[in-house]
Amino acid sequence: MTVPSSVEPEEVPWVPTRAVGRAVLFCGLAVFTGVLLGRVDLVVLAAPFAIGLAWGLRRRPTRPPVVAAEIADEDAAEGATVGLALEMSNEDRVPLDLVVGRLATSPWLEVTDGARPYAGDVSAAEADGVVGRRGRGLRPVGSVRRVELTATALRWGYQQVGPAVAFGVAGDGLLVSGTVVAPPLTVRVYPAVPPFRADQAMPRSAALVGVHRSRRPGEDGELSGVRRYGPGDRLRRIDWRVTLRTREVHVAAFLSDRDAEVIVLLDVLHEVGTSGGIRGEASVVDATVRAAAAICDHYLRQGDRVGLVEYSGRPRYLRPASGRRQLVTALDWLLDTQAGGGMGPTFGLDPSSIPNAALVVVLTPLLGPTSAETIAALARAGRSVVAVDTLGSLGQRRIPGSRWTPVAQRLWWFERENLIGLLHEAGVPVTPWIGPGSLDQVLNDMARMAAAGRLGAR
Amino acid sequence: MRVLLDDLRYAGLGLLSRIQATIATLRRTTGVVLGLRLLVCGALLAAFALSVPPALLWLPAAPAVAVGLALPAALFPRTRMVGFALVTIGALWLATTMFVDPYVSPARVLGLTAALYTAHAAAAFAAVLPNDTAVDPGAVLRWALRTSLVVVASVGLGALGLVAAAWLPQAQGLVAPLVGSAVAAGIVGVVVWLARRPGRLP
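YS: structure for the whole thing
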């Protein structure tokens, strides 16, 4: 994708540089002094300046150069290489001694060999405006100069490539054009999906389709045991070996396979830490987005329905759906995630907006009472809620300050531990994000609790 | 007192970060840009050495003056420092040839001409290049070729002029002003015409 600059020649005029004034001044002073004093040597001193001026200004370009930024692919993953190009061309019939161009990039796109200006000469466009001549013996020179660059995408998000800026130089540095600007382009950098698996059964499941073995009996699922024959049992389910051994008719019992609905709630009310990109330390928002991407990827590949909710100063909601298309939509949706700057959401999270059977995975740093209240409200409304702690080691980092700072930090840590304890009491398991198996233990516990709850109700 | 110390500490950190940023910028300087600036500096030092008689070069102040003229021009080619250095060296040449050593050697004049123009042209080229520009070597080679052509042509014409003036010693006082006036008028005319002609759109 490429978008060139488009300006009228009148908007970007060619102007003389300081070198013109310097040459005229020196030349004039030397010649007039030589004339006044009758000194030929002073005229000789002025001669190259006069010749250089006349040679440099004999042909003056009128059109500014054209610059364009180009990206090979609009989509990339964190850590992947993105192909970029800076293209500078000359539409004038006067060759340009130099076109100096620069491609600004987002700080999260690390350009190989550093983002720096590039300069090269560009020959004149021919009468048909298509082809330029070739340089003699050095290297091919056309009316287009193209600089191929590669950049490494360091962080997820919409990363900007450009604007590309350039100016032309003619007359051996005596004339420069105004700066032309090509509009920026955007690369979508998708978060790196950390390895994640959750092999445990879902606490609740929905329709009679899917890959999760449920706690309910069904057909053609996982074998749950052998029981006595009862009215309605199919004859083909009879387990003949057990029947012969026990002298009573037994049938094999199966569990049904079901799909599940997962709602991933991203608590990004606060940002903690400074993002170091894919190679550095992850901030809270980084960890949240990457974990959400991993969870979405895992469950959507299993055929479950996944929805997303952003809990921040700018709440957003992605309706649950399943399939590969939903995975792409979810990853696109995640790119817009921004920390809420500590502001509360404009409206609270209504538990009734979340389906009863859904598993709610809350990715939260648990930094404030607002987050804890929301999680507790969901749990009180009967939703299966798992809180995943995204603060990680950032919470234990020493903060420089006065001698009271460690004490204050310790108190804050105790308060947070207390908050986590209260959530446990409210029936919300809190687990740190550790990648594969992060949710297995808590899902297992929740499944057992869900089954026990139903037994008690009977 | 504590507030003052904190302020000083923050000011020191700010200064340190500025110094680190400057060092980082200097470390990004590319070879071509550095070479051009060294060329400006070297050409101005050579021009200074040629503009004063050899006896004056051994004065203790001479190296300081030479470096004081050449270094700022090389470091800041976009400023008036280059023009100042050129005019100062020209004035030194005029003063020393008038009051110290009136003998004007053709080799010194032609060398000074080449050195002054080289410094001017290199400064003009360096002025349009940011420090960290990656420049196509071909473009620099072609610029060097064009500059060399101008220098060779000027030195050739200058040598011819000096020889012609030496052959006509009796007319030296009259010919020089006449030729000079014609050249000056021509230059002014050409420059004014070049600067004022309207832009032509193809």
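YS: worth flagging: Chain B touches chain A through 72 residues (CB under 8 Å).
IM: good catch. Also The mean pLDDT of chain B is 85.
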